[in-house]
Design a protein that fits this description.
The strands form five sheets. The chain has a five-stranded mixed β-sheet with strand order 1-2-9-6-3. The chain has a three-stranded antiparallel β-sheet with strand order 4-14-10. Strands 5-12 form a two-stranded antiparallel sheet. The protein is of the alpha+beta class.
């Protein structure tokens, strides 16, 4: 650290995210702010708008997970604090984070993910087949609300007949991303309690009879290495649902919306090899997860700015993904963009999302079938987004139509 610090946190521009410009044109708003400063101060903490700095902070050993104080400061309930301390891997600090992550990595092997691809295609195909009788249809209610949870349950080894019990709980878990938290706390508590009870029973069943699934893998890791406590084991399963359902249903919603909106649907139908890159560009352009949270574990300095230990740092992935220093012409949606995969939608470094390969596979398999079976897909109205402040972005209703199918039925 230098002997003289030119800038302190008091010099960081204070920004009100409730301003109209962040609702109507956030890309331009963050662009203008980034030109003035690579960091801003908001209600969420000190937000990083520069891609380069955000990427550096993701791997900086002087920074750590934020710990449970984030929810404590929001007046969280006892159940939410259990989630923050036992389940939410991004919030668990230090060597404990690394220990739990090592155990969870055993469940996300390439072999296991590839073995799920036929199930992904079968689930997606069955749901798409139903859309022919629902034209126009709602992509969220009729597809994305169901598809990722069925894939996750297949990964974990949850019996298919139990899936309906999960849908409402996992959606309510997504309310953990809302701000303020208090209006949603009762629903979140009920979801956490229901899932904890269910996973307690499922773990007991798998201890009696192992299978080739994620739950059995974690039980084996616990028995062989002692890497997981019982609460951490249950918490890992609960967090998998939170991280893998809402984010994927929001992100795939953006995939379909942006490809249709920008006139790229027919192009991808003719060139399906563009599908993986198109998904990366969607995640750069409209990431479902807008922030990554870190905390200064010690006094640090970035670009002459002194950050005292304990400073809450928010990697603004939406802004970083549109940094022109890394992504030329960043507000142009380009499914052939060569470096789109450098987006921070899954995090980076030691906090890279463990399920990133699973999510990519889910979206690629589903999109491929959508392109094949719904060739004339187009909007059937305006998409609905929840009002209020959230660290996740996505529509709760996406009305679509496929007129070719409708003409065939007529």
């Amino acid at each position: 650290m230098s002997d003289v610090t030119a800038v302190t946190l008091g010099d960081v521009p204070r920004v009100d995210l409730d301003e109209e410009r962040f609702r109507t044109d956030p890309a331009t708003a963050f662009d203008q702010l980034r030109q003035e400063s690579w960091i801003i101060h908001t209600v969420r903490g000190y937000e990083i708008l520069s891609y380069e700095v955000a990427q550096q902070m993701c791997v900086d050993p002087r920074l750590d997970s934020i710990g449970p104080d984030y929810y404590l400061n929001l007046g969280a309930s006892e159940q939410i604090m259990w989630y923050a301390t036992q389940a939410s891997l991004p919030m668990i600090e230090g060597t404990r984070h690394d220990r739990i992550r090592r155990a969870l990595q055993r469940g996300f092997t390439r072999r296991r993910i590839d073995s799920l691809r036929p199930r992904m295609r079968a689930v997606a195909g069955r749901l798409i087949d139903r859309l022919a009788d629902r034209d126009p249809f709602d992509l969220v209610a009729d597809f994305t609300g169901r598809y990722p949870i069925e894939v996750l349950c297949a990964l974990m080894g949850v019996p298919e007949e139990d899936i309906d019990r999960f849908t409402a709980w996992t959606v309510d878990l997504g309310l953990l991303a809302r701000f303020p938290l208090e209006p949603h706390m009762a629903r979140i508590d009920a979801a956490i309690l229901g899932l904890r009870e269910y996973f307690r029973d499922l773990v007991d069943r798998r201890r009696r009879e192992r299978e080739d699934d994620f739950v059995s893998t974690l039980i084996a890791a616990q028995a062989e290495t002692g890497l997981l406590t019982e609460d951490e084991l249950h918490g890992a399963l609960l967090n998998l649902l939170f991280a893998g359902h809402d984010t994927t249903r929001y992100q795939f919603g953006w995939v379909v919306q942006l490809l249709v909106r920008h006139g790229e649907w027919e192009r991808l139908r003719a060139a399906p090899d563009l599908v993986p890159g198109a998904i990366e560009e969607v995640m750069r352009f409209e990431p479902a997860l807008h922030i990554l949270l870190r905390k200064a574990a010690a006094d640090v300095e970035y670009r002459g700015l002194f950050l005292p230990a304990g400073t809450l740092l928010v990697m603004n992935t939406y802004a970083a993904n549109r940094d022109p220093e890394v992504f030329p012409d960043p507000h142009r949606f380009d499914v052939t963009r060569a470096n789109a995969h450098r987006h921070l939608g899954f995090g980076h470094g030691g906090h890279l999302c463990l399920g990133h390969a699973l999510a990519r596979a889910e979206m690629a398999e589903a999109l491929t079938l959508f392109l094949q079976r719904l060739p004339d897909l187009r909007p059937a109205g305006e998409s609905d987004h929840d009002a209020g402040f959230s660290s996740m972005s996505g529509a709760e209703r996406i009305p679509l139509t496929n007129p070719v199918d409708r003409r065939k039925r007529l």
